[in-house]
Amino acid sequence: MQTSAKNRSFTQLIEFQIEPHQQPALVLALSAQTEHMARHLRGFLSASIQASDDGRRVLNYLQWQTREAGEAAFQAFENGEQDFWQLIRVHQAKSVTFGSFQVLHSLERSHDNALHCSLVGER
User: Fold this and answer.
1) Number of domains in the chain
2) Which keywords, in A-to-Z order, does the entry hold (predicted)?
3) Does residue 2 belong to any structural domain of this protein?
4) Mean pLDDT score, 61-88
5) Which has the least CB within 10 A, 5, 17, 102, 115?
6) Which CATH number fits the domain that encloses residue 58?
7) Which residue, among 122, 61, 55, 64, has the nearest Cα to 94 in the 3D structure?
8) Is the CB of residue 47 less than 8 Å from the CB of residue 38?
């Protein structure tokens, strides 16, 4: 069964390359911004903020119900109290890489230790 592209969930990956001493503050700032988006923006599904062991990278993973919800969230992030570009400057990011993806397949373990697979559809 095919699902239209409009009904697929949408993932944004944002990777920051920074100096190790900047990592804790960037993680804290992204955590606050992500919690704010989760509370106030429609379509939020999940998020994680991951830090590399060497301290030089931070990955912000955001998942939304639709592409439109993800794009609206990024616009809100850009125009927020601490806008996205200010966040980059304050934490002296050397580079920022953006990625957007349609979710086609997911696998997760439930509280009862069962694996649940979801095939969203083919392109």
Assistant:
1) 1
2) Monooxygenase, Oxidoreductase
3) no
4) 82
5) 115
6) 3.30.70.100
7) 55
8) yes
Helix (H) or strand (E) holding 107: strand 105-109
Count of C-beta atoms within a 10 Å radius of residue 91: 19
* Residue 66 structural domain: 8-119
| Rounded-to-integer distance, Cα 94 and Cα 12, Å | 20
Tell me: the pLDDT tens digits for 77-121?
777 655 778 888 888 899 888 888 888 877 778 888 888 777 665
Q: What is the DSSP letter of 87?
A: H
The CA distances from residue 78 to 33, 60, 71, 84, 88, in Å, are: 11, 15, 11, 5, 11
Rounded Cα distance between 73 and 34, Å, is: 10
The partner residues of 97 in beta bridges, in order of sequence, read: 15
Whether 84 is covered by a domain: the verdict is yes
Q: In angstroms, how far is the first alpha carbon of the chain from the final one?
A: 11
Give the dihedral of Cα atoms 21, 27, 29, 32; nearest 10 deg.
-160
